[in-house]
Design a protein that fits this description.
The chain is an alpha/beta fold and about 375 residues long. It is built from twelve helices and twelve strands.
Amino acid sequence: MRTEHPNILCIMADQLTAPALPFYGHPIVKTPHLSALAEEGVIFENAYCNSPLCAPSRFSMLTGKLPSRIGAYDNAAYFPADLPTVAHYLRDLGYHTCLAGKMHFVGPDQLHGFEERLTTDIYPSDFGWTPDWENFAERPTWYHDMISVVQAGLCETSNQLDFDEEVAFHSQRKLYDLARGGDKQPFFMTVSFTHPHDPFAISQNFWNRYKPKDIDMPAVPPIPYDQLDPHSRRLYHVCALGDYAQTEKRVRNARHAYYGMISYIDDKAGQLLQVLDSTGLRDNTIIVFISDHGEMLGERGLWYKMSFYEWSARVPIVFHAPGRFAPRQVHQPVSLVDLLPTLTEIALNEKSPTYSDMLDGQSLLPLL
């Protein structure tokens, strides 16, 4: 089904660090579907989030504005409904906009420009996760802790697996509806999975894709506490990194599960790509694969995110549209705020100074 303007399918992972992907150089992780997409696509080698935390990163990515400009400082930051998002811009340009999965919107507006949302979110939209930055000694009970690493391994199912199965099912069904609807209106569809976000637990099928002896250890060993920078000391405290020993077995198990969770996301992406192929949508659909931030995964002895070190801040950005953009690697540094001006420029087929002047991001189209 061809339209005047290309369809756009954005596949989004949560807490997926670029260095853990084979098309960014990782020797162990297996992602056949995403690797094939990257081989035919444009890989941004040095792409970074604008804040290594879920809500601030997503708010800045959607608005094309830096977190400091929109007051997005933590996972309880309010996302004002009057901030235009990429969904508003593309909807104004004639696109049908649709969202499935996690987006971590805080506040009563759970659409932010998307015309429809196919699933609920996995996280609450209230202000319960407000940190007290002036009270260093008090550790909030809702923060990450090392239990995710200590208990890493197999699970039969989890709330995250249940959620992502629902996201994949509704997204595939929506793609079928769009294909058979006969409507010439282009679509912008965001499918946002919660994997490979911790806890580090995955089902047997994906665990078995890796042998325990093959799991690599962090390249940078734990840094002694007295040698950590002040922010890393803060993370060490609030994440209770000193409560349990980071033994080799625990670290390997957590990384093993994380790699299995990445393969799970790859399978989900493969299911979406298969629908595009079988319905004839693939040829006129630009596919964008991204993550909101990374995961330290034991590098420097740190876990989770909230750090500006490479494994926490570096994200994958891949554009797949071989009929429009020749496959290549782009080495110039870019960030997630560049997505909005890029997608609006693609939709417009021309540069829009009106949009550009309002944003902190820059269009990646010249690099594409």
